[in-house]
Amino acid sequence: MAIRGKDVVFKGRALPWLLLAPQLLVLAVFFFWPAGRGIVEAFFLSDPFLDRSIYVGLDNFRALFASPEYWDSVWLTLRFSAATTLLSMSVALALAVAADRVLRRSLLLRSLVIWPYAVAPAIAGMLWLFLFHPAFGVLALALRDLGVGWNPLLDGGDAMLLIVAAAAWKQVSYNFVFFLAGLQAIPASLIEAAAIDGAGPARRLRDLVLPLLGPTSFFLLVMNVIYAFFETFGIVDAITGGGPGGATRLLVYKVYKDGFQAQDLGSSAAQSIVLMVIVVALTILQFRFVEKRVSYA
Amino acid sequence: MSLRILGMLAAGTLAALASSAAQAATEVDFWHAFSPDIKLGKVLTRYVEEFNASQDDYKVVLTYKGTYDDTVNATIAAYRAGKQPAIVQVQANAAPTLIFSSAIKPVDDVMAEAGIEVDWSRYLEPVMAMYRYKGKQMAMPFNTSTPLMWYNADAFQKAGIDKIPATWTELEAAARRLKAAGYPCPVTSAWQEWVLLKNYAFVQDLPLATEGNGMDGPDARLVFNHNGVVEQLARIGRWSKEGLFEYQGRQWTGAHQAFYAERCAVLLESSAGYGGISQNAKFKFGAAVLPVEEGTKTPRNTFIGGAGLFVMKGLDKAVYDGAAAFFKFLSAPELQFDWHRNSGYVPITVDAYELARKQGYYEKFPHQELAIKELLRQPSENTRGIRLGYLVQIDEILNEEMEKIWSQEKSAQQAADDMVRRADPLLARFAKTVAD
């Protein structure tokens, strides 16, 4: 049989399916099945034991959109995600640039910066709480002695600041690793050439390094937004519990709270779908508008 | 089949039966939320060991499932998979979910079918009422507490307060003196919605929701935005503005820490807070019953916290008989007195209370009797308990709106109206999930 160009075709259908089967099985059992159940639940009102399930159509969604508090959650989640992403990426970039210049060979120091990533969100939350709880936080008590009005228990702004800082701190190390790898992939000759042409460090960073980090930054942007939307409920739970007055009631935390504490399965499932739609829409936006400006050359 | 073979078969079966009965007592699974590392968990383990050693028919198998939420979630998942435990410890705010469900077997039925007679009138009424639905006892009360007013006696002396405040007006006057004596946080509270809102309504005999606070059925609506509860919220809001009350978070940790650090001089908190306070307070402290409103003739019983033991449906009769025997064991006056002493929770029977009194226990630990005295007051239609669907979400709403009053973002009336506006749709949705 002659092989012409790319037209290599397997005969028979069984073999490819057989080879795909393990992967598909894992996907089906751990993703499609539960996700499908979640979508179905969103249209039902059930008691947690599932002894009784009533089809309610779009009622679960209507109840959400009719609640001003739910819209508050949507807006504050967007603000939280933007702030967390911006903070964790800019700090990580600054650290990576510094590390790239000074610590090129120090594996130990580079490894140390990665540690926070290994800390579970709930533990990270507790660490920050021990520093900033107004009744027993070491730094909070110091702030109070200095006369700074710090009270995340009643001031929504302070509480938001605290969870943004904790969530960003945890993600800095992840971003750092990618930025550092990106920086080290830039050929030294390119930087040297720019230096010979008379470009100072700031200029080289702006016109050479940052554009070359474009693909890395874009990847991190997508990952950080997803992190901020989905993986931060442990931090909220440990630090603020959604308070004060709902000022840190992130969408994902509400999904967890309503579903796994209040046993309101229908609403929790509907909220997951809304959350998923928001993140998918944001990711599409990022790919359409941000990625166009990224050069992979 | 010949007679000889039949005889052999019969003998074999008999032997097998006899040996299995001797080897394996019926196992009764009991899932709970007391970590084995803390005293409560150790005490519970000891009771189970004593019960297992006291007879040969049943073996209670104790499994620690994590927090209260973890325990309920595990039970729900297990029930759906047909692997439910016999007994599960459920916190008060999740109790309505179980009581209104068809997944449990009422404790009344469990006891009756096992042929064990229980005289419920010998149990503390507000404790039993909490778990009674349509005349049936749905769960066995277990760890039960109720709030008290804990105070720093040294601070009172320093501020020149001779009389322990018994009314909210007196507490305000005391708070002003404490403030003047240099205490930045004269009054604080743990579990604010439980202590400052629900318990206030109970003591003052004010309704929180229709259907007897939901005790009579799931179709309840909140009503407290038109009664004295609003004035109470307004008062604490004003205290917060004037620096007489300082908020330390929704649970207990912050309030306890601020009390230990002598920042807060009065701590409104559960009777079960005694363990932490006695271990950590480096000053003389005391306790009193919760303040009442000036001129209240009959203060009513307070509202309980803690957890009850539910029995899950769908298991063998032998397992239920084991659960019944275990409940009987747990209710014995000596054991309840031991539990009272070791856990700081109140005993669930009047007999245990009388035993403790007879042995002079309250002369040494007077605060332990205060909680029982609060619970033994004359109940009313408004103080049988609270049984609202999606209670976890409703408590969350109460907490959020209370925080908005303390931070002066909302007036008490506006916040109370918003509590009702937000909670009622949840109650209506929950009612739909309950079969009649």
Automatic annotation (TrEMBL), chain A:
CDD domains: TM_PBP2. InterPro entries: MetI-like, MetI-like_sf, UgpAE/MalFG_permease. Keywords: Cell inner membrane, Cell membrane, Membrane, Transmembrane, Transmembrane helix, Transport. It comes from Tistlia consotensis USBA 355. This is sn-glycerol-3-phosphate transport system permease protein UgpA. It is a multi-pass membrane protein. Pfam families: BPD_transp_1. The complex is composed of two ATP-binding proteins (UgpC), two transmembrane proteins (UgpA and UgpE) and a solute-binding protein (UgpB). Its main location: membrane. PROSITE patterns: ABC_TM1.
Automatic annotation (TrEMBL), chain B:
It is found in: Periplasm. Residues 1-24 form the signal peptide. PANTHER family: ARABINOSE-BINDING PROTEIN-RELATED, SN-GLYCEROL-3-PHOSPHATE-BINDING PERIPLASMIC PROTEIN UGPB. The complex is composed of two ATP-binding proteins (UgpC), two transmembrane proteins (UgpA and UgpE) and a solute-binding protein (UgpB). Belongs to the bacterial solute-binding protein 1 family. Part of the ABC transporter complex UgpBAEC involved in sn-glycerol-3-phosphate (G3P) import. Binds G3P. This is sn-glycerol-3-phosphate-binding periplasmic protein UgpB. The lineage of its organism: Bacteria, Pseudomonadati, Pseudomonadota, Alphaproteobacteria, Rhodospirillales.
